[in-house]
Specification:
Strand 2 and strand 3 form a beta hairpin. It is built from 11 helices and 10 strands. It is α+β, with helices and mostly antiparallel strands.
Length: 382
């Protein structure tokens, strides 16, 4: 990819999403933070604009635009409360993505049209109390019983769980087989034996619901298996390639907004008779932020374009996620510093953005896991 300019259709998408964010979502941002929930009418408004279907083919109810288009849209959604995109990321970016990548015709046609229109909300149930970064060590069990599987176990930190209608659940059919026994299933809310814990109280991402999910003798028809038996771990990793690009794009957008706010504040805040922007110390913080944001954006767009061309992007997705999320942490810290005492006050959104930024380096694979993925790719090269 030598030309990094966006095609006209993606420039139009970018403008459309940004306008929607500024007109419909931004005015409700403080309300979302205070209530710790996203009003259903806002979810419906995002669905009406097609935001849940961007990046998916039209034949299954998507909006097209490819993964690059998805990243362009996500970057603009980052200009508001971080939890707003999280409901899309958990539902479409992970749950629907896993169903689509799994390739099973029955689950794809049964669930994707509803998930990509937000008639149903999805959740991606991979992490467990004893298997976070080490997802291959999960112990939720799926026992075959005739034309059904019976699931027993527990999942933790599951985004959208309190509001989800559909769960993609990863369980093992053979605990002795390690990651080679992991299989994916679609489980619907209301299935007997499925229980959702209370909404987790988090440091940030207020408005994004997260909870534990429990399975006790949950019966799942075999036609709700996603992909082949024992191929679930590979599916989970492929899905995370997509999810990590979305998360990296969101980090870029969040950092861009913080930079713009910091520039405006530095130009308007007068100390010792001149704007603080006249001080080299402030200028360097702004310059470093702008440079890192530009680099991260190019990394994300390059990896997304390669994914659209059918290339394997596991190392590049990990690089994008690692660099962009670490960059966001630095930019958020600089934004608080530039805003001074006001940056620490809850009346200014900078404080919220600082708290929200911390989770980016943890979920969908910690920074340490990303480094392992990158190094593994390097060492496997011949």
């Amino acid at each position: 990819m030598t030309d990094f300019s966006l095609p006209e259709e993606l420039v139009l998408l970018q403008r459309t999403v940004r306008g929607f964010v500024e007109e419909r979502l931004a005015p409700r941002s403080a309300e979302i933070e205070e209530r710790d929930e996203i009003p259903r009418e806002l979810i419906d408004a995002m669905a009406a604009l097609g935001l849940f279907g961007i990046g998916f083919p039209e034949e299954v109810g998507g909006q097209g635009f490819g993964k690059l288009g998805y990243c362009v849209a996500v970057e603009q959604l980052a200009r508001v409360n971080a939890s707003v995109w999280n409901v899309i990321g958990g539902s479409s970016g992970l749950c629907a993505q896993a169903i689509d990548l799994g390739g099973s015709d029955e689950p794809r046609w049964r669930y994707l049209p509803d998930l990509l229109s937000a008639r149903r909300i999805g959740a991606y149930a991979l992490s467990e109390p004893g298997a976070g970064s080490d997802a291959g060590a999960l112990v939720t069990l799926a026992r075959r019983n005739g034309d059904e599987y019976v699931l027993d176990g527990a999942k933790t930190f599951i985004t959208n769980a309190p509001i989800a209608d559909v769960f993609v659940v990863f369980a093992t059919v053979d605990r002795e087989a390690g990651s080679k026994g992991i299989t994916a299933f679609v489980v619907e809310r209301g299935t007997r034996g499925l229980e959702i814990g209370p909404n987790d109280a988090k440091m940030g991402l207020h408005g994004s619901t997260t909870a534990q999910v429990f399975f006790s003798g949950v019966r799942v028809p075999s036609d709700q298996r996603v992909g082949e038996e024992g191929k679930g771990f590979a599916l989970a990793l492929r899905t995370l390639d997509h999810g990590r690009l979305g998360l990296a794009a969101h980090a870029v957008g969040a950092a861009q907004r913080l930079l713009e706010a910091s520039v405006a504040h530095a130009k308007g805040r007068v100390q010792f008779g001149r704007p603080i922007a006249a001080n080299q110390a402030i200028q360097w913080m702004l310059a470093d932020a702008a440079t890192e944001i530009h680099a991260a954006r190019l990394m994300v767009y390059d990896a997304a374009a390669r994914l659209d061309r059918g290339e394997r992007v596991t190392p590049r997705a990990a690089m994008s996620k690692l660099f962009a999320t670490e960059m966001l942490g630095r930019v958020a810290d600089a934004a608080v510093q530039i805003h001074g005492g006001m940056g620490y006050m809850r009346e200014l959104w900078i404080e919220r953005a600082y708290r929200d930024a911390r989770i980016y380096r943890i979920y969908e694979g910690t920074s340490e896991i990303q480094r392992l993925v990158i190094a593994s790719g390097l060492l496997e090269e011949r």
